[in-house]
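Lay summary. Proteins are chains of building blocks that fold into shapes, and those shapes determine what they do. In this project we predict the shape from the chain. Here is one chain we studied, written as its sequence of building blocks.
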Amino acid sequence: MVLLGVLGVVSGLALASSGPPSPAITSHPVSPTAAASASFAFNDSVSKVTFVCSLDASSFSACSSPNAYGGLAPGSHTFRVEAKDTAGKTSAPTSFVWTIDQTPPNLGLTFPASGSSYGTTGWNAGCARGPGVCGTASDPSGVSAAAVSIRQNATGKYWGGGGYSSSSELYGNATLSMTSTGASWRYALPLPSPDGSYTLHVKATDGLGNQTASGSPATSVFTIDTVAPPAPSITTTPANPSNQTVASFGFADPEGVVVYACRLDGGAYSACASPKTYSGITQGAHTFSVEAIDAAGNTSSRTTYSWVIDTTPPPTPTITQHPTDPTSSSTVTFAFDDSEAGVSFECRLDVAAWTPCSSPTTYTGLGAGPHDFYVRAVDAAANHSGSAHFDFDVRQQTAQPFTITGNAPKLLYPGAGGVAIAVRLSNPNSAPISVTSLTVVVQATTATTCSASWFSIIQPTISGAGVQVPANGSVTLPAPGATAPSIMMIDSHTNQNACVGAKLTLSYTGNAHS
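And here is the predicted shape, written in a compact code that computers can read:
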């Protein structure tokens, strides 16, 4: 019993030394709330107490229930109340924390992005749940609504659900889907038409009724462009065929602001820029393709270039004709062919550079001594074969004079017209010559009383280049560059019967050079 008494005293001492119980708050604002005022009711389990209150970090001051506050700023607030007994002892505080939310939801406009352009494909793929406009919204008080307006900038008309016909701005309600961080919204909208500029406005309302201000909606100005750019032009290509396993392509597009996708043969299209280079390409036929893609995602038709890579050289040519070795001629001719069809040829004599040639090919004016002829084949891809070779020696001989022969084929009569003399120029040399002058003279007759003076010679005319007489060959006048001489019998007005049956002797002189 003594122990219990002691305990009772202890308990009594404890009660005497502590304040009254903490008050109970019986009425308070909801949290969160949009109201800038708050009223609190409170009481205590013991009577004859008074109360002191504090808002946020302010000092406690006397208050009574209910206690109201006004003009509160948005944000978090804390109300505290304590009970004070007649002995002046104070209870532990009782508190209530609440939030004043007067801010509209935070809006995210995912699609369409402001400043962007969209074609049909880009528009239909912009939102996950189908064509339209979409975004996100979040708010501590939750999101209760989102609304969208679309304006066609060219006409200033707004979307009314079936077309751009409204002169005043109309908002349509978007569909909300709750997420762990707020809500996503989507407004179903077909691809705006016609092409051009559009303006999107979005506003939202939170669970407390806070709404996006009418003058500051989330905004996107975007462009609809469904016209594909022109097909690119390929400006640089490899040769076709080519012997290179590296190929570079240049390309451009009239639309200007585009990106490109390229493909080699049957590979996938991938982003590329001009010039585009491929290396390590195998032999055979290949095709390069390029497409242009504009800012709205419209893809042009493709432009292609096909070519063949051939790195195999043709066979070495065969020399089918050549001069004797040694030869006394300063002019030589070579003929050649190749077993691969369609090749061209390059030739070289001695140390000269390779030059294009065809069969047969002739060299003139060769000096005495050894010479080397080379020929190689070149295919369409510019692959060079090995060279075929023939060496020979030119041994010059002393030049021999050319000969001139010829007769008048008809009888001559006094006063008759001239008769052409069939003059033959013969070249015994192994090199061609050019005859530059020729003179014919009546030297004598077989009848002593038939005077040579009764005959007149019309001399041949020879151009500056002369008459070309081939090596070991002959030319009969007239010929290119020269006329034939002619002879006529002059009427002397005397008895010229002595010339009947007489024969004339003609002499010829001339000049020539090789």
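What the prediction tells us: The CA atoms of residues 232 and 253 lie 5 Å apart.
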